[in-house]
Specification:
This protein is α/β, with parallel strands linked by helices. It has one domain: Ribonuclease H-like superfamily/Ribonuclease H (Nucleotidyltransferase, domain 5), CATH 3.30.420.10. 36% of the residues lie in helices and 16% in strands. The protein is built from six helices and five strands, in the order ββαβααββααα. The chain has a five-stranded mixed β-sheet with strand order 3-2-1-4-5. The longest helix has 22 residues, at 131-152. It starts with 11 loop residues before the first strand and ends in a 22-residue tail after the last helix.
């Protein structure tokens, strides 16, 4: 059972991101403030849940949360800033869109830039420890998957309906044969160095 909070006397928001290891598409982040007494037996780190479980939990999180927000940093921002800074930027954007201002942020991972006026704690594997971070991981993951499905319709040969932009064999083979597109992260190693990639 995940922990409901770190400090019961502070209004906490859990934050997490999705898509850091992808070759294409934005990185998404979510911030979620759950009631202190929130509980759900299936809530867990999005990475160990099935796709069906993630999508069944999303409306529960959205309806039960005191506030939630999802934001992104584009592939252009990832190329400009680097993936870590872009991930933190997306988390800051999500926090800024919350309808209630939290008193403390629980951040999945070990790196974060302070958000103005709000204390934070970084927690390695926090999405498997705290409910609010797990909830944020589910929202970030499902919203990003929805985005990748939408752009898959324009570029079906990359297989984003199944790989969601991650570096699968099918994805890399398509990059080798078709080249990259505007959704690819140009600062990432899209193919082994012996291959040349024609960029749009």
């Amino acid at each position: 059972m995940l922990k409901q909070y770190q400090n019961k006397d502070r209004l906490e928001a859990g934050c997490d991101e999705a898509g850091r290891g992808c070759l294409a598409g934005p990185v998404f982040a979510a911030a979620v403030i759950l009631p202190k007494d929130f509980s759900h037996p299936d809530l867990n780190d999005s990475k160990i849940l099935t796709e069906r479980a993630r999508y069944s939990l999303r409306p529960i999180i959205e309806s039960e949360a005191l506030s939630y927000a999802v934001a992104l940093a584009s592939q252009e921002e990832i190329d400009s800033l680097n993936i870590l800074k872009a991930s933190i930027l997306a988390m800051h954007r999500a926090v800024s869109e919350l309808k209630i201002s939290p008193e403390h942020l629980l951040i999945d991972g070990n790196r974060f830039n302070p958000y103005p006026g709000i204390d934070h704690t970084t927690i390695i594997k926090g999405d498997s420890i705290y409910m609010s971070i797990a909830a944020a991981s589910i929202l970030a993951k499902t919203y990003r998957d929805d985005y990748m499905l939408s752009i898959h319709k324009e570029f079906p040969h990359y297989g984003w309906d199944t790989n969601k932009g991650y570096p699968t064999k099918k994805h890399r083979n398509a990059i080798q044969s078709q080249g990259s597109c505007q959704h690819h992260r140009k600062t990432f190693t899209l193919l082994p160095k012996q291959f040349q990639i024609p960029f749009d």
